[in-house]
UniProtKB/TrEMBL annotation:
Organism of this sequence: Palpitomonas bilix
Domain called Pre-mRNA-splicing factor Syf1-like N-terminal HAT-repeats: residue spans: 305-465
Domain Pre-mRNA-splicing factor Syf1/CRNKL1-like C-terminal HAT-repeats: 67-290
Coarse class of the protein's main subcellular location: nucleus
Pfam family, one: HAT_Syf1_CNRKL1_C
GO CC terms in record: post-mRNA release spliceosomal complex; precatalytic spliceosome; Prp19 complex; U2-type catalytic step 2 spliceosome
GO BP term, pick one: spliceosomal complex assembly
Family to which this protein belongs: Belongs to the crooked-neck family.
SMART domains xref list: HAT
Keywords assigned by UniProt, alphabetized: mRNA processing, mRNA splicing, Nucleus, Repeat, Spliceosome
Keyword Nucleus part of the UniProt annotation: yes
Function of the protein: Involved in pre-mRNA splicing and cell cycle progression. Required for the spliceosome assembly and initiation of the DNA replication.
Protein's name according to its UniProt entry: Crooked neck protein
Amino acid sequence: MSKSGRVQNKAPAPVQITAEQILRDVSHLREKEYKPPLQGVADLEELQDYRLRKRKEFEDNIRKNRNLASNWVKYGQWEESQKDFPRARSVFERSLAVDYKNPSVWLRYAEMEMKNGFVNHARNIWDRAVTLLPRVDQFWYKYAYMEEMLENVAGARQVFMRWMDWAPGEQAWLSFIKMELRHNNVENARRIYEKFVYTIGSVKSWLKYAKFEEKVGRIDLARNVFERAVEFYGDQHPQEWVFLGFAQFEERCREHERARAIYRFALDKLPKGQATTLYKEYVTYEKKFGDKDGIENVITQKRRIQYDEEVAQNPHSYDTWFDYVRLEEENGDEEKVRDVYERAVACVPPVQEKRLWRRYIYLWIYYAVYEELNSKDMERARQIYKTALRIIPHQDFTFAKIWIMYAHFEIRQMNISDARKALGTAIGLCPKNKLFREYIAMEMQIGNIDRCRSLHEKYVEFSPENTHAWNEFADLEISLGEIERARALFELAVAQPTLDMPEAVWKAYIDMELEQEEWENVRQLYERLLEKTKHVKVWMSYAKAEVTAKDYSRARTVFDRAHTVLMEGEKKAERVTLLRAWKDFENEFGSEEQKKEVEAKMPEVVAKKRPVFDDNGNVKGHEHYNDFVFPEEKVGRYCSTLHIRPLFLHSHPR
């Protein structure tokens, strides 16, 4: 922008212009809309000249596009406005000669004749229109309406009868019927309905016919219409809405037995998937007029059919089978319950994958529990368990739950040997931790210690890395007072190359020695454990054990050793944790000098900041954090610290 175009004074103007003022100015400055002057006709010669110009204008438009119907219609309507009807008819006739298939020309032509009172001309035009274009419903409607408005009912009827010969749509028949009913010609309406239902053949047409007979008070004829409708569709194509309308008709007539019989007949005839609305209405009907048993039977039957359809579509939808079984169990029919269970367990998963078998196995479990608790058929329940165990592919996977439930079932039947046999077979075929634990727990309840030891030995042989197995075996020996055997088991456990939770074994071993107050053994175990790990919790536990032994000097030595090790490893957080525990120890058992010595080792908490890097390694900012600075560290080591007053750590409750 040039210097001359720049605004020198940027201060606000003394008079501000608002948007409202701008709009007001625009409206005032807007030019007025142009209106052509009114043209008056002074005499006949001037009128003739005006008509000549307009006709020439219309003729020119027609010559440009003679197929455009709007040109002809405007021309004819202008001639009509001039009251020159012969010329107007001539224009419309010329238009029809060009394109007689255009309905709008016929409509404007006939409306011109009707509007100006030329009834015969209009009747002639409608007659020609419906003859040439019989599929244009609007011609027939307007033709019949004109005759009816002229009170020529016979003529209107004749028009409708000519129209019906062309088999029009449903609305045309209904319009014919309504015309007859407006003039109280019920018999004529009935005859039209008779042709209507067989020509159209829709469910709605039959229902309208029956409703008509019911409305005029002919109940017998209405019932006959419904019966004929059922026969019309037959057994091959039964219609739900015909039966539903028939039943509701009988209900309105208070013929409840007839209505119930129709509902049941329809439910037997219709496919189950096509009777949804009928079922709902039947349930509603039974709630209003039936007894309690009838209502429950209807609801149960409806749900049973629904479940049958679902399992037919997907036989491996086990959740649907569970719902189906629950329905039959609530109904209380034992044979139906067993039938559903048998159908459900027959749907074996097609693939040998455990995730697909999980829901399926519960069908067998529920089946067995039902036979045991509800049917009291113990032999049948036993056979169900055995069949289920025979079906499961144990070489690929197994389910410990069903083995355990079978064993518990045999125990409830006082068959201890069969329960042992079941669990022994399970461990032999497909050993699992849960099977070992349940078998051992069963033998412990019985009190067979030798079997418990034998099972524990097999358990640790099967899963030597299982810490829980070693600890339970040792706990058994401790409970029996066999400390040497327990000590030997712990030695075997800690000697294993891999353990899932080695710290649990060491803790149990040390706790046993603590309970026996074997302090030297405890110290040896801690020293062996410290050879494997230098974790701060091990040091703190070691010191706590010395405190338990009331050897405070040894405990202080353990703290000092731990502090030295952690200081060399530069593990600040663990070192702080240790110093806090050491400080608590000295506060309880140490002298003032020893307290001051530990206090001198405590670090300061200093706030610092460090750079934060993005994914590309570039510095994108800084973050603040707290750092521990121990006394042996130099102050100049952290050059980017924030200048704040040092905070000293104090002991806090554990």
